[in-house]
Amino acid sequence: MAVPKRRLSHSKTRTRRSHHFETAMQFAVCANCKSPIPSHVACPNCGMYKGRQVMDVTKKLRKIEDKRKAKANAS
């Protein structure tokens, strides 16, 4: 394995690490329900993506409610 002969300066190290930053998520507005959503993702509120229905949101909500009821009955 290669071993550096000299210690790297702060400037050289920081220059190399200049690309290691995080960027904030970009949000778009849903054309159907006007809620903010991440780009290239189906809307979690209405289930639309690029003008067509891709998810049945009511089915998903019913499933969540059933899990809550089952958990409450088990306790």
Walk me through the structure.
- The chain has 75 residues and is α+β, with helices and mostly antiparallel strands.
- The protein has a domain at 26-74.
- Helix content is 33%, strand content 13%.
- The chain has two helices and four strands; from the N terminus they run αββββα.
- The protein has helices spanning 10-16, 57-74, and strands spanning 27-29, 36-38, 48-49, 52-53.
- The strands form two sheets. A two-stranded antiparallel ribbon has the order 1-2. A two-stranded antiparallel ribbon has the order 3-4.
- A hairpin with a 2-residue loop joins β3 and β4.
- The longest helix has 18 residues, at 57-74.
- It is elongated.
- The mean pLDDT is 91.
- Keywords: Ribonucleoprotein, Ribosomal protein.
- This is Large ribosomal subunit protein bL32.
Ordered list of secondary-structure elements with their pairings:
Blueprint: H1 10-16, E1 27-29, E2 36-38, E3 48-49, E4 52-53, H2 57-74
Antiparallel strand pairs: 1-2, 3-4
Keywords: Ribonucleoprotein, Ribosomal protein
Protein name: Large ribosomal subunit protein bL32
Family: Belongs to the bacterial ribosomal protein bL32 family.
Distance between the termini: 58 Å
Beta-strand percentage?
5-15%
Q: Any idea what the radius of gyration is?
A: 24 Å
Structural class: alpha+beta
Apparent shape:
elongated
Number of strands: 4
* Assembly type: single chain
Largest sheet: 2 strands, antiparallel
Can you list the strand order of the major beta sheet? 1-2
Reading the helices and strands in chain order gives HEEEEH
**What would the average pLDDT be, to the nearest integer?**
91
Number of helices: 2
**Helix percentage:** 25-40%
